Amino acid sequence: MWEVRAELIETTACKKTLAVEVPSDTVQEEFEKITREYTRVARISGFRPGKVPTALVRRRFYNEIKEEVFHRLIPKSYDQAVQQRGLKPLSEPKLDRVEFEEGQALRFEATFEVLPEISLPDYKGLEAAQKEEPVTEPDVEEVLRRLRENAAQYVPVENREVQEGDFALVNVRGKVGETGREIVENNVLLEVGGKNTEPAFTERLRGMRVGEAVDFEVLHSNDPPGPKGLAGKQVTYHLELAGIKEKILPALDDDFPKDLGELGTLVEFRQKIRRDMEEQSRLQAVEAARDSLVQSLSERTSFELPESLVERKLDAISHKVAANLASQGVDLRRTKIDWQAVRDKYREPARREVRRDLILQEIARREGLEVAEEEMEGELERIARSSHQSVVALKASLKREERLEEIRTNLLRKKALDLLHEHAKIMGGVR
Predict the structure, then answer these.
(1) pLDDT (tens digit, 9 = 90+) per residue, 343-356?
(2) Among the four 65, 207, 270, 333, which has the fewest Cβ within 10 Å?
(3) Please, what CATH class does the domain formed by 258-427 belong to?
(4) What is the pTM of this model?
(5) Element (H, E) at 9
(6) Coil, strand, or helix at residue 38?
(7) What is the pLDDT of residues 60-93, one digit of tens each?
(8) CATH architecture assignment, domain 5-113
(9) Where do the domains of the chain lie?
(10) What CATH code would you report for 153-248?
(11) Which phi and psi (to 5°) does residue 335 adopt?
(12) CA 428, CA 135: separation in Å to the nearest integer?
């Protein structure tokens, strides 16, 4: 290791500056080392490879040699200075006041962020309400209604016109006004008069017969958003009616649970639905109580937030927004999106999330919490199952994206939250 002098300049609780100096003899040694490397490979007319005089190599490639020395010395001396001071940077350093010449000491200042020291109040014995929402008979009936809707059969209807409540099987061609982008969708099932069907489609479909077609224009509404990224767009449609279907709901009797793969009678199925809903209500109450505990602790704890962590959180949020828009059919390459406005909108939520994360990490540190390898493997298996991929593929992806440690940190935060909830004074019951 080199001899490196590092003076720590306290800027803020999160922001640190290191004044680093690399002695002149170390700088000179690196100049000579890289010059020798250039000499071995330099090709200059009139000289055999490796036989070019060193002085000539230095004159010909001096700027390149100096740049190489700089790019080797800076990261090595910075890493050594950080280790000397026992610091753990969160962000890439910003260099300033750089002094660098051959035969002289290399000097520079590196500014970066670190985790702040967090002074927590007593976090054991906090109070939180944990009220469960009651499950009523109408709640159970609503679940049964949705299950019947999902199990409905669509029976073809012949020799009549489309009526309100029918399901029309249509082939659609469309052209978006300004862009001219074409829309082609076949065998689309539309509920005539349904809340998810564009009113203009319902209007044209009423009274049509199978085999008929109609052309019309639609200015899709901005509120609520139009389908598949067409909000506010003028579209010319050609619609062909390929079939008419009637929805038939299954009978609500003892055969209904069996058709869904459940055991027992309809009465027993209702009881199971209620138990499942009560368990879901309990879990939601626990989650709300846990959130309340962290929020209470956050309001009583003051510390500076590292902006690099906030920006990292905003990166993740922006990625989710982009993925959500893409899933709705928005072409991100053609659509002008003000991503700075997106970041501004979510900045405060991101700051709250970072504050929450750091508080839980501090609790985990104080309590000596750790994540065992079997816990890590179990979490990776759970994520792999939910994302329909193998654990091997998931690990490879996380390693490639340098996110494997993120999974471990999330597990550690969950353990801290478990501890917070376990030692809290919970006021329970049903609302």
Answers:
(1) 999 999 999 999 99
(2) 333
(3) mainly alpha
(4) 0.71
(5) strand 5-10
(6) helix
(7) 778 888 888 888 888 898 988 888 888 899 888 9
(8) 2-Layer Sandwich (3.30)
(9) 5-113, 153-248, 258-427
(10) 3.10.50.40
(11) -90, 130
(12) 16
